[in-house]
Input
Amino acid sequence: MSDLPKLIELKKKYKYRLVLDESISFGSVGRTGRGLTELYNVPATEVDMLIGSMANGLCATGGFCAGSIPVTEHQRINGTAFVFSAAIPALLAVCASEGINILTSTPSLLETLQDNARAIRSVLDKVDLIEILSHPASAIIHVCIRRHAYSSSGGLLAPGAAPQPPKHTKSNPAVLTASKDHFQHDWHYEEGLLQEVVDEALAQGVMITRAKRLRGQEPWEPRASLKIVATAALTRKECEKAAGVIKAALVKVLSRRR
Output
């Protein structure tokens, strides 16, 4: 999750336009679901353009663009989606509108969602060999194998053991190296371990997934991670129980590789 105040500070210093994609945060982040501007208590006018998909938070289709009148009018009249695309079905337009009404009139839904996300994190924080990459306010929780968990032979280290720096080899897109601490990530190996965790959790009745990405498409490759999505449809106790299943699956799979 982006550090919005810092981005705005840089925007004012270097004079660029800031376009903020709220596709994931809209409807789940902030006291009333307004996203990062509400979470960081930043006026929406500080962002030149707020954009996002209505498929996630509003269970509809299409997207939105919010900003000053000149910006939004230019987007509306000249955007290729407006010129070459049909409008969304009336049913889904009403669905999106009603979704906004529900978020506005029932803030307790967001309180429940955020409380459930904290409950899941509190259980998973107790696992030694993982780290949680996501912002504490996010309902989407990414879990990866902790840095320095590897031995030089590629296995997992016991807690407290010191890793050896990897040997320098020819460029390999399957190996990620963090130059800051000379630590190597083999994402083929990590994704294999995490898939075992997914399968083990599913066998116990809890459905999670690995984050799916196209490798080799970005200058910086994200690490392999589990993707766990909290929901307001469950109680806190149910979320803690599901998190306990995921914790047990992580311990079982990662302990075998030490």
In short: The helical segments are 4-14, 36-39, 69-78, 80-84, 90-105, 108-124, 187-203, 236-256. The longest helix spans residues 236-256. The first strand starts at residue 19 and ends at 21. The beta strands are 19-21, 49-53, 63-67, 130-132, 140-145, 175-178, 183-186, 209-210, 226-229.
